[in-house]
Design goal:
- By secondary structure, the protein is of the alpha/beta class.
- The protein folds into four domains: about 160 residues, no CATH class; about 260 residues, Thiamin diphosphate (ThDP)-binding fold, Pyr/PP domains (Rossmann fold, 3-Layer(aba) Sandwich), CATH 3.40.50.970; about 240 residues, Rossmann fold (3-Layer(aba) Sandwich), CATH 3.40.50; about 130 residues, Rossmann fold (3-Layer(aba) Sandwich), CATH 3.40.50.
- The protein has an eight-stranded mixed β-sheet. A seven-stranded mixed β-sheet has the order 14-11-15-16-18-17-22, sandwiched between helices.
- A hairpin with a 6-residue loop joins strand 12 and strand 13.
- It starts with a helix and ends with a helix.
- Bound molecules: thiamine diphosphate (TPP) and magnesium ion.
- The site of magnesium ion has 6 residues, from helix 13.
Length: about 950
């Protein structure tokens, strides 16, 4: 019964003639995802008998293979009108085995490839690559076999030649891992790139001389720095010099293919080399840095191997802009920053397929395998909100991280690159001591990215000639490795030998190149010949409007009523036949009423109207975070879902025909990469409002590296401005230790020199003005917005249309209806939601002796504005800071001196008391009853202490 189905299938498949490899690939695909194979194949595979007692797929696979063998030989008999024989002839069995051997090379050839210049690590013997494993022996070497899908250019070949060709293709300097990719087109693509030329492109003399020049530059710079500044840390590239020709090729090939910008990310290793030899940084500037001559700028500055740089170079396709991202010490965190910056550039250029802007990220082997943010970044790569059409990853795989080189210590995976398989990225391992193989692999990687729009990894297997840095002695910890390294010729010298042997260059010419490079360095001149001295200004974003402003810079954030009415109408329009879910429908209708002045404005309205008005004024907006479309607490509903067919409608994208881009994406469940991405985006797109929202404020600490290393310190280390807004839901509502606190204390502790803004708005109009002010002022500083949960629906946390059509963001707020200032003897200062509880208490207790003041901006602390509010209180005796957070958290420790100062200015005798929770290890109590009791007490205390 199976045979007849099979025969039909053979007829329909475009590959005929016993092509077991094809069917096997289909079966592999079927095993991992039955829905990925055509229906008729799926039903055939479904019907195959199971193998009694075995569950492993290999067992099942081989059982199935037997069936195929049988059927495929029958098929050939049918084709030649010969009656099927009862037994499978020997020749057919062998043919099948040859095809299996071919497949084994494609799958596992990389495991026998000569990837390691040091050859120190024992490699596992791969049985499948041994012909004897497939019952093929020397005596078979002269027998002609069909080559199946093998792209060796001949339908039949002698077994000996097939094996030789497979060895050359898959087991020399290149180990290509691509058979984990499900898409057969891609597998074929790689086979067709490598097999016809046996992975040996045979470059012409010009290309080889160019390669040598690039290697000469790579080696020359390290030598030069080593002799001029011996023992000074530079994290040299020695042992991985092939990186330079690799990058050079990426740039030139990208330029030829129409790419206009490349954003590069890399860590310490080889960074100075890349800066000088790829980006064209003036060596003299670098020497000045080595000599400590560089003049101090306004901020803290940073060490030389963290510095970013940008330049323009010429390619056959025109000028290309290169930007190397500034980088903290924390390995791998720059990866999502680079991708975010690329995405911003692609958005600006309306580069939908990612051809115009390319991310290139370099990694160390240890960091690539160890840091979790690598996985998060890969997970982003094909998503709607974060994809860029593929990143080119290069691993500078020197087989050691600091002093850790034992694989058993460094990772559990075979390769340091295995993580890339999660997105089915091809991984091209290459021996970095074979520069031509590196060049070949680089071209293939670039072409793959262009063709398939996915991530690709080049694993440059190399070594580290010196210690982790130039002051370290590596033999202390890696004696065997370094015994080998000491005897090893440099990559360049190996290549010079091979080129002189081949008669491509003379030894004199090679020497000349070396001398020429040194001479240019001696003169302190640029070494990148393609450097464009006067770059095309159009390739740059102008940040000058945002320089040199104080946080107090003013802007008009109010909006005419007419505009609000116009936009309000647009916001409630949906396409015809669009059915909104009942509760959501009420929200939309209520928003209509708010526009009409028939209902007070709530939080969601204030926020959405801020976005609508900014778009109306020409500012692009990007909002991401987990579940931001609806909003964790259902207040936003920026995306409507048709109940009939699941279609979505985002009114903010339909305000007018010529409105700027409004992007809103629910993010993957990541904080670290997600926030880093938005940092990269915001630092590239000054005119946009870029918002990242944490699902609950607590979760932002998963991105603490981004907050510490970039957001709060980036401007001062690197002079990079960033206007990113973080929305962090916060508030003590009895939900337990994990969902109460956005850890305000952390942000306040990191606040200095006007680096960030920490705001705690308590009304819809405050959030409206705060968001608008963030882009409308010429100031670009991160905004940490502590946002509410219960206030989203609080009946007192409302505003009127007047509050939007006039006024601005208030850094401090009095009560809505303040008591007579002359009667005030007590002032309670607070921030956030507790204000409403204090107000309630004041009303019920008829405490007209007490004034409550909200500090809506905790940093930069609005001292003068607070002075103004306090000014009328001539009878003041008591001043209290009231917070919901425990004493060791919240604003108490970081901000009390600011409040004290204001009180002292009013009356030197005034003290500031504390009303809040006791110091606590956890942010909040886990039991509702405890929470309520604590909350009641702190509110009471505010009126009594
Ligand atoms: C997140 C993080 N943890 C630890 C370190 C300290 N550190 C700096 S370099 C290094 C080793 C990196 O090894 P690898 O990624 O292989 O790069 P290589 O130095 O070998 O080029 C370590 C552990 C760091 N910089 N960042
Ligand atoms: Mg390493």
């Amino acid at each position: 019964m199976h045979e007849s189905i099979m025969e039909q299938l053979w007829q329909t498949s475009h590959l005929q003639g016993g092509n077991l490899a094809y069917v096997e690939q289909l079966f592999e695909t079927y095993i991992s995802d039955p829905n990925a194979v055509p229906e008729e194949w799926r039903s055939y595979f479904d019907k195959l008998p199971s193998v009694d007692g075995y569950q492993g797929k290999d067992i099942a696979h081989s059982a199935i293979r037997e069936q195929f063998k049988h059927i495929s030989s029958n098929q050939r008999f049918l084709a030649s009108n010969t009656a099927p024989a009862g037994a499978v002839p020997d020749a057919d069995k062998k043919q099948t085995r040859v095809l299996q051997l071919i497949n084994a090379y494609r799958f596992r050839g990389h495991q026998h490839a000569k990837l390691d210049p040091l050859n120190v690590k024992p490699r596992e013997l791969v049985e499948d690559l041994d012909p004897a494993f497939h019952e093929l022996y020397n005596a078979d070497n002269d027998i002609e076999f069909q080559t199946g899908s093998l792209s060796f250019g001949s339908e039949t070949m002698k077994l000996g030649d097939i094996i030789e060709g497979l060895q050359q293709t898959y087991c020399e300097s290149i180990g290509a891992e691509y058979m984990h990719i499900v898409d057969t087109r891609i597998k074929r693509w790689f086979q067709q790139r490598m097999e016809p030329i046996r992975s040996n492109p045979g470059f012409d003399a010009d290309t080889r001389i160019h390669l040598l020049e690039r290697l000469t530059a790579a080696e020359g710079l390290e030598k030069y720095l080593g002799s001029r500044y011996p023992g000074v840390k530079r994290f040299g590239l020695e042992g991985a010099e092939s990186l330079i020709p690799c990058l050079d090729e990426i740039i030139q090939r990208a330029g030829s293919g129409g790419t206009k910008e490349i954003v590069l990310g890399m860590a310490h290793r080889g960074r100075l080399n890349v800066l000088v030899n790829i980006l064209g940084k003036n060596p003299k500037e670098l020497f000045d840095e080595f000599e400590g001559k560089n003049k101090a700028g306004s901020g803290s500055g940073d060490v030389k191997y963290h510095q970013g740089f940008s330049s323009n170079v010429m390619t056959p396709g025109g000028e290309i802009h290169l930007a190397l991202a500034f980088n903290p010490s924390h390995l791998e965190i720059v990866s999502p920053v680079v991708v975010g910056s690329v995405r911003a550039r692609q958005t600006r250029r309306e580069d939908k397929d990612g051809r115009q802007v390319l991310p290139v990220i370099m990694h160390g082997d240890a960091a690539f395998a160890g840091q979790g943010v690598v996985m998060e970044t890969f997970q982003m790569s094909q998503t709607r909100g974060f994809g860029t059409g593929g990143t080119v990853h290069i691993v500078i795989n020197n087989q050691v991280g600091f002093t850790t080189s034992k694989q058993a210590d460094a990772r559990s995976t075979e390769y340091c690159t295995d993580i890339a398989k999660m997105v089915q990225a091809p991984i091209l391992h290459v021996n970095a001591d074979d520069p031509e193989a590196v060049l070949f692999v680089t071209r293939m990687a670039m072409d793959y990215r262009n063709e398939f729009k996915g991530d690709v990894v080049i694993d440059l297997v190399c070594y580290r000639r010196r210690g982790h840095n130039e002051a370290d002695e590596p033999a202390a910890t890696q004696p065997m490795m370094y015994e080998k390294i000491r005897k090893l010729k440099t990559t360049r010298n190996i290549y010079v030998d091979s080129l002189t042997d081949a008669g491509v260059v003379s030894e004199d010419l090679a020497k000349q190149m070396e001398n020429d490079y040194r001479t240019v360095l001696d003169k302190g001149e640029h070494v990148v010949k393609a450097l464009v001295k006067e770059p095309n200004a159009k390739l740059h974003v102008d940040w000058t409007p945002y320089l040199g402003h104080e946080w107090t810079a003013k802007c008009k954030s109010s909006v005419p009523l007419k505009t609000i009415q116009k936009l309000g109408k647009k916001l409630s329009e949906v396409p015809e036949g669009f059915i909104i879910q009942r509760q959501v429908s009420k929200i939309v209708k209520d928003r209509d009423k708010m526009t009409a002045g028939a209902l007070p404005l709530n939080w969601g309205y204030g926020e959405i109207m801020a976005y609508a008005t900014l778009l109306d004024e020409g500012y692009p907006i990007r909002i991401t975070g987990q579940d931001v479309g609806r909003g964790t607490f259902s207040h936003r509903h920026a995306v409507l879902h048709n109940q009939k067919d699941g279609a979505t409608h985002i009114a903010l994208t339909h305000l007018s025909d010529d409105q700027p881009k409004f992007e809103l994406y629910d993010s993957l469940l990541s904080e670290e990469a997600a926030l880093a991405f938005e940092y990269g985006y915001a630092t590239t797109s000054p005119s946009s409002l870029v918002v990242w929202e944490a699902q609950f404020g607590d979760f932002a600490n998963g991105a603490q590296v981004v907050i510490d290393q970039f957001l709060t310190s980036g401007e001062h280390k690197w002079g990079r401005l960033c206007g990113l807004t973080m929305l962090l839901p916060h508030g003590y509502e009895g939900q337990g230790p994990e969902h109460s606190s956005a850890r305000i204390e952390r942000f306040l502790q990191l606040s200095a020199e006007q680096n960030i803004q920490v705001c705690v708005p308590t009304t819809p109009s405050q959030v409206f003005h705060m968001l608008r002010r963030q882009v409308k002022r010429p100031v670009r500083k991160p905004l940490i917005a502590i946002t509410p949960k219960s206030l989203l629906r609080h009946k007192e946390a409302i505003s009127s249309l007047d509050d939007l059509t006039s006024g601005t963001f208030q850094t401090v707020l009095p009560e809505k209806e303040p008591s007579d200032a002359k009667k005030i003897t007590r002032v309670i200062l607070c921030s956030g939601k507790v204000y409403y509880e204090l107000l309630e208490k004041k009303k019920t207790g008829e405490r007209n002796d007490t004034a409550i003041i909200r500090i809506e901006q905790l940093y930069p602390f609005p001292g003068e504005d607070l002075d103004e509010l306090l000014a009328g209180f001539s009878k003041l005796k008591h001043a209290v800071w009231c917070q919901e957070e425990p004493m060791n958290q919240g604003a108490w420790y970081s901000s009390q001196h600011h409040m004290r100062n204001a009180l002292q200015r009013l009356n030197p005798k005034l003290h500031l008391e504390y009303a809040g929770r006791d110091a606590s290890a956890a942010p909040a109590a886990g039991h509702m009853s405890v929470h309520i009791e604590q909350q009641k007490k702190l509110v009471n205390d505010a009126f009594e202490v």
